[in-house]
Amino acid sequence: MNKKIGNIFKGDKVIWMIFFFLCMISIVEVFSASSNLTYKSQNYIGPIVYHTGTIIFGVVVAIVTLNIPCRFFKLMTPFMLLITAITLLWVLIGGQTINGANRVISLMGFTFQPSEIAKGTIVLATAQILSAMQRENGADRKAFKWILWITIPTCFLIGLENLSTAALLFAVVILMMFIGLVPLKQLGKLVGILVFFAFLAIAMVMIVGNDTTGQEVAKTEQTDQPKKKSKLEKMLHRADTWKGRILKFGKEDVTPQEYDLDKDAQVAHANIAIVSSNIIGKGPGQSVERDFLSQAFSDFIFAIVIEELGLLGAAFVVFLYIILLYRSARIASRCENNFPAFLVMGLALLLVVQAAFNMMVAVGLAPVTGQPLPLISKGGTSTIINCAYVGAILSISRSAKMKKEPEGIKNIG
After folding, report:
1. Which of 66, 96, 254, 355 has its CA 20 to 30 A from that of 190?
2. 384: CB partners within 8 A, 6+ apart
């Protein structure tokens, strides 16, 4: 019996344990944080049944993915690039609008986010380019150009509707290039250019966007004579949202008496959840702020984790992601070939960087965005795709050719 189970759950056992704990935390905390959904639908078991079903399906996807030999991931790259290009253009033209942005495609009764597929595709392509163009002293200088030719158009298409996802993906690619020994001079120039364009983009958003944080426009003014938007304003239709987030994040701290709970409800109630948690928290299912946070089960679930599980529980969640990154680095260091090593690091960074940013938003160290906490937040496409990423990491730990190590070191690892 144990042998049969072992044949199913193949690959690195530590990664499996991390995956298991994250999934269990997800089921418990999403069940607790979904009070708004259950109240609106009057179906108290439906949301958690759906989420648990998604998690189970994600585990199946992970098991299927880990049984794909690592060498086949290379063959998938051109097809994934084609699918990514088609779906990203599709979602801009005919996608469904969620929270003011076209992010979802509906196909045969199912919906999915092309940006989730695009992230894994770019990591896959970057790993292949870096591995193919490795030289004795590091990556060939041409690798830098090839990676940018693929990454920049993809991030541009994603960024039109989901700027934070595009920025995080680009950051992961830069980290992969650093690990892949791309010349530091090239990376330095790229970072300098990115800083310049970041300031330029912020200035453009501040000019084009309208400040909606402290004023309300009467409905009669909105309907009588709608203002015609320029082509630039149509392209940057998310500028109002971006400007509002920048202004809220950049404003000076105010006293609790002066804080406006209506205008800054998410940040305010996330802060209340954190400061009321203490060391051990209020206990699973005992959150109070979940009833006031509109995205308690997604963007701000880490605040609910802190409120219910306390600082110790939050530290444990952070520890899981750190060990995931460490263990992936361990697997990468033992790979004999470059491609699986770069791929496993890219996928691990994709999960951990997004997790770090979500946590920073929850505790007020970064502006509010729509980034869920990987493998914990409630989600459809994102949960399943993240499970596939874990499956790919497990596949590499199982099927990639490993370096031969001394017997003593092998026993320790």
Report:
1. 355
2. 54, 57, 58, 61
Give the contacts of 250 (CB within 8 A, at least 6 positions apart). none
For residue 339 the two structure tokens come to: 């491609």
Identify the bridge partners of residue 98 per DSSP, sorted by sequence position: 101
For residues 347 and 393, what is the distance between their CA atoms, to the nearest angstrom? 7
The DSSP annotation for 181-214 comes to T--HHHHHHHHHHHHHHHHHHHHHHHHHS---SS
User: pLDDT tens digits, residue range 12-62?
Assistant: 899 999 999 999 999 988 888 776 666 555 667 777 888 889 999 999 999
- Are 245 and 367 in contact by the 8 Å Cβ rule? The answer is yes
pLDDT single digits (tens) 72-121:
898 889 999 999 999 888 888 876 666 555 667 776 667 778 888 899 99
Long-range contacts of 63-68 (CB under 8 A, 24+ apart): 63/8, 63/9, 63/391, 64/391, 65/387, 65/388, 65/391, 65/392, 65/394, 65/395, 66/10, 66/11, 66/391, 66/392, 66/394, 66/395, 66/398, 67/10, 67/395, 68/392, 68/395
Angle 121-52-48 from CA coordinates, rounded to 5°: 120
pLDDT tens per residue, range 352-369: 999 999 998 888 787 777
pLDDT at residue 350 in the model: 94
Would you list the DSSP string of 88-128? HHHHHHHPEEETTEEEEEEETTEEE-HHHHHHHHHHHHHHH
Residue 168 tokens read as: 């995080």
Q: Which two tokens stand for residue 185?
A: 């001079």
| Proportion of the chain above pLDDT 90, given as a percent | 30
Q: Is 241 helix (H, G, I), strand (E, B) or coil?
A: helix
Q: Which has the closest alpha carbon to 325: 354, 358, 352, 357?
A: 352
How far apart are alpha carbons 150 and 407 in whole angstroms? 42
pLDDT confidence of residue 95: 67
List the structure tokens of 243. 């400007």
Q: Which strand (E) or helix (H) includes residue 134?
A: strand 134-135
For residues 309 and 301, what is the distance between their CA atoms, to the nearest angstrom?
A: 12
Q: Please report, for residues 121, 214, 235, 238, the alpha-carbon distance to residue 157 in angstroms, rounded to integers and kept in the order given.
A: 14, 31, 11, 13
Contacts of 408 (CB under 8 A, 6+ apart): none
